[in-house]
Amino acid sequence: MQVETNVKAIHGGAGIRTPERSLEGIASVIRADGTADPAQDPRLPLALVKKLYVAMVRTRVIDERLVTLQRQGRIGFHIGSLGEEACILASAAAMRDQDWIFPCYREFGALLWRGMPLQAYVDNMFGNANDPAKGRQMPDHYTGKPYKFGSVSSPIGTQMTQAVGFAWAAKLKKDDLVTSAYFGEGATSSNEFHTAMNFAGVFKTPTVMLCRNNGWAISVPSEKQTATRTFAEKGVAYGVPAVRCDGNDVLAVYKTARAAVEFAAAGGGPTLIEMMTYRLSGHSTSDDPRAYRVEDEVTHWRKADPILRLRKHLETLGAISDEEDAKLRADVDAELKACIEVAEATPRPALSTLFDDVFAEKPKYLIEQERECLEGPRPQAHH
Amino acid sequence: MQVETNVKAIHGGAGIRTPERSLEGIASVIRADGTADPAQDPRLPLALVKKLYVAMVRTRVIDERLVTLQRQGRIGFHIGSLGEEACILASAAAMRDQDWIFPCYREFGALLWRGMPLQAYVDNMFGNANDPAKGRQMPDHYTGKPYKFGSVSSPIGTQMTQAVGFAWAAKLKKDDLVTSAYFGEGATSSNEFHTAMNFAGVFKTPTVMLCRNNGWAISVPSEKQTATRTFAEKGVAYGVPAVRCDGNDVLAVYKTARAAVEFAAAGGGPTLIEMMTYRLSGHSTSDDPRAYRVEDEVTHWRKADPILRLRKHLETLGAISDEEDAKLRADVDAELKACIEVAEATPRPALSTLFDDVFAEKPKYLIEQERECLEGPRPQAHH
Amino acid sequence: MTEMNMVQAINDALRLEMRRDDRVVVLGEDVGKVGGVFRVTQGLYDEFGDDRVIDTPLAEGGIIGAAIGMALYGLRPVPEIQFADFIFPAFDQIVSEAAKYRYRSGGEYTCPMVIRTPVGGGIRGGHYHSQSPESLFIHTAGLKVVCPSNPYDAKGLLLSAIRDEDPVLFFEPKRVYRAAKGEVPEGEYTIPLSEAKVVREGKHVTVVAWGAMLYEALASAEEVSAREGIEAEVIDLRTLWPLDLDTIVESVKRTGRVVVVHEAPKTCGFGAEILTLISEKAFLHLEAPPVRVTGWDTPFPYTLETDYLPLQHRITPALIETAKF
Amino acid sequence: MTEMNMVQAINDALRLEMRRDDRVVVLGEDVGKVGGVFRVTQGLYDEFGDDRVIDTPLAEGGIIGAAIGMALYGLRPVPEIQFADFIFPAFDQIVSEAAKYRYRSGGEYTCPMVIRTPVGGGIRGGHYHSQSPESLFIHTAGLKVVCPSNPYDAKGLLLSAIRDEDPVLFFEPKRVYRAAKGEVPEGEYTIPLSEAKVVREGKHVTVVAWGAMLYEALASAEEVSAREGIEAEVIDLRTLWPLDLDTIVESVKRTGRVVVVHEAPKTCGFGAEILTLISEKAFLHLEAPPVRVTGWDTPFPYTLETDYLPLQHRITPALIETAKF
Ligand SMILES: Cc1ncc(C[n+]2csc(CCOP(=O)(O)OP(=O)(O)O)c2C)c(N)n1
Ligand SMILES: Cc1ncc(C[n+]2csc(CCOP(=O)(O)OP(=O)(O)O)c2C)c(N)n1
Ligand SMILES: [Mg+2]
Ligand SMILES: [Mg+2]
Q1: Shortest CA distance to D67 belongs to which of D26, D20, D15, D19?
Q2: Do A358 and C52 touch (CB under 8 A)?
């Protein structure tokens, strides 16, 4: 019977700690020598591929600088996407202009791709008066409605069900849009994955479920998260088509995500995509991964760096040079440096903003609390 | 790829509203003519089969009387198992003496099978002073720890995760026991199904997940609950072996459940069993199913009544007679009548019990509230 | 004007608003063909179809999480939770997401939705078909909480709630779903989510109540008036949060005495907040200790339900004691 | 005696009890090899192995639901929720199941377990790494709630909690996880889950606090003593529920004045309950309106965190006003 054979296949699997094993039988496009496999190549315009490369490098450079900034105590926290840039940028690029993105918390690269000015993102990192989130949330809890991009919240998984509801609403309104939701493989264990997938399947919502399988949920390895060999298999429980792709291969991610977007836009409903990648950094600046994982594993994945991979591909096309690369990084550095200077010089949000936006209209009791706060003494510096 | 083929197979499915279709390719034992398919027959001792028949008829008769009792306003509520007796009794019988059963709310038949005196169950239906639950919960929210049987609560699904935790604890203690959890197909949409199945899969707990697919979740048909063709398929998402069986065929249910119990006891881990059956009555005495389902469907399933089915089988074995049947029903009637008389004559729980068992020791504030209540005026009768 | 019970009035409000505003959708368990287990959404499925009156899978978290997504898109979802006791699987989406969306996004996103759910005891529902969890939501910044006591208010408050720009918990006192009848205007009308109502005037003691317990409070008020000549002023909150504190304080300043009645357990119930606010605003006017008549600090019982609930027999002595203190 | 911080004291209590009682198991996200994101369970995995120190999948409902099953079996699970803000996916299992098991089963089943979780602000955690949801659990009949302020209490209270026969929420004030240091006895000792502690004596005003805010209350007490000669009596609740009301009332009867301090939002916070209980028990002794100094009724902010929290700068004026009222 269908189910039983499946289960056997799963029990046959030996977990995915060995990356080779995990990528077995998964569509890649960019080959070891940097050339694109003609059988798989989505044949994107070179300009788009270049644009993706630039965005990935930009994301990488910003990530690295922000970690330094945190170490220097100039920002409180950063959670980045080191090694996951292909998943994030290519899947964002695959969305159409009218489509909406519901982020997890590693997708600032997608937000910048969607057009948020770097200054606004950096203001969020400082939680200053110009932060679109008004300094109310931790760094990297950005909000990007003008860019058809959601509002980050920490509780794992909640964005998935909301992305399904948003897409469902659009479908009811015959509005041609697709939503995507980003989440890590650990989040597949959450209540939200279950309800999001089930509702998406039952109501055939135009939603692309983007699972970044980066091997770790903080210190918990992906094989401790589920007894299945893959996370894509979970689509079966919901009647939702599911595929895996090489998450460090920009062209493979774009091709897979684009197909899912078109499938959804054509009324086919949701797709679950498991993007096989790796979290090269700690979980966040609060985490030291040496406490729980071996260096070899990291080394292995460093070699599979999606940026090196794409760069090699561009080289085979003669579309990148060291000078260009150096300039690109220098430009991002300069741009970022300028933004940081502005952000650091920007004051913190006005005290009164503490009481805004709880409701559309401020109720009397909040007006009283605001007055009490504004007229009251200020905290000592040492706090 | 595994997953994709699967998904195709699923999308091929046309929903399970037509019972014939839904049972296609599912192991049954008792054939139309009442004989057991030799290829499938678990060859149970006749005494056990007879015992199951008696228990099923007993359950049926009690169900019918309790509905009448509720109509007469003598009990407040009843939620029964009309048509689901084979699922419930055969799966309970398949558990070993040391195994624990975590009920949903339709399994009073399993509780009686496990040895709870009928009087105790009837006392629960009246919520009187002798109710093991001390009249604190609605009727049919029984508790059966002495019988290695759980405590019913209304929130859908919670018992599944607890059954997994209980089995997990036993496994950690190298204690040879298996747990089973009953739930309806609607409950597969709950958060609890997801976490229970995932934890069971990851920690390989000795748990048998018993899904009674009775076609309905109150007024919601099973095909609106999921986009999959079957509920068994959901096992794939958790690496949990899953099977479907003819839920109105006592021998098929026993055989399937017993195999799962032995698999679990042998260290194989959990199994999900989808038992195909049908809720012949309304959801509960509060529900009138004519508002949402067609009579034909019910008529069809009446013909598939698990008791008629088993009776026919016993006839082919010359192991049942009309006299026997009549006496059996008459005996249950008499026994039940007596229990009801006792239960109705039993006073309600003492007022002070209201304040017991909130904690092991009654804190001061509860002693004060108890005094206030006991010394205070009593409610008017009309309330 | 036609006489309606609360079920009919709520149904009427939903129907009118769904006709007026095609952004309004109803979703939940059994809300479709069968019209809900209390028949509150009856007939809506036939009139508006399964695109706007949606039977969902059995998952409260999915119902609310999806409704939030719909609200972000621009719809006005009105999800139903079959019993307030079953709202907890959706608790994370309500308190972590719906309540905080406007604030955490700097005002970019809003989450206008009305979560309808039957609340309270009186139907012999035991532990899980009787609870009153309002204080959990009142404690959560960003949520409005409504609990009407009669058909007229139910309709007007629900129309306001659906038109409100923020998430609203709309608790429907199931004990009086059918028992509470009254004249209800045919067309639309709204009642602001900010005004309590003095339903009985009196000078000796103020009684604050809402939902089904309002009728018990009123019965006690009549009883003590007849028996003891004590005149209780009874206030029906209607909207629990934001609280119409002015109306309460104005009354307490006159009576100097106050009794709050609610079904939820006493400890950390809304009564504690109301009484503390009163002592913050009118301490020097208090001539007697503020009193709570509430459910006991136990789970909600089945057989002893009427001994658990703060009914007339418990309110009356509290009124007399407080008035005579 | 050795000096420890709270992280070390809690770790020590877990280690001692796991050695003494093999029914004790620890489970949660990242509690294993890495020893928890705050390193509270560090070293336990190495000593007791992955059968008793268990990394679970990312599902709080699974952690608590499974722990309940373990407790029903007879183990003593000590599940960890990584941050109190993430307890809501498990809310249904806690309030509908763990809290009600003993009662609903007529005493047949019990659910002894300790849910450990870091609580409160002060680490620049914003909305979702800072909240103090204690009142939601205090409102739920059947749960005990503990919140120690120092290493000595943390160890003694945790040992009592694990040996308690009922479910306990054990909130750990992360702001002082490492900042609060003190002498802690090597071996086992227990502190009953029923006794508050007067940590500073005074005759002018009573201050009730717990967890991290205790230190702010004490700082204010010293400040007003030095500046105004006002002597505040400071009570550390230690166990929030059941509440040691006698100690509070005894104090308030002497001082006639009371201020409660907590981080959670004001509305329907535990402060409202404490003050209402005081006015129920000691109304005639109150010489000033009871006062709350709490978090504002907004979500928990990031940049303006110190303006949100009820720190010394806000407690001091409250003490002076109340003392001078
Ligand atoms: C409900 C909830 N529980 C726990 C956490 C703490 N937490 C933050 S990220 C994380 C791991 C997530 O892993 P994964 O889903 O794989 O995403 P990744 O970080 O690897 O991208 C955990 C446990 C949380 N934020 N929310
Ligand atoms: C969390 C929760 N939500 C809703 C309900 C109300 N309810 C009780 S039974 C039921 C349908 C259950 O259907 P299914 O799981 O198929 O079990 P069946 O009744 O068919 O045996 C619902 C919605 C509940 N008890 N708990
Ligand atoms: Mg991950
Ligand atoms: Mg069913």
Answers
A1: D26
A2: no
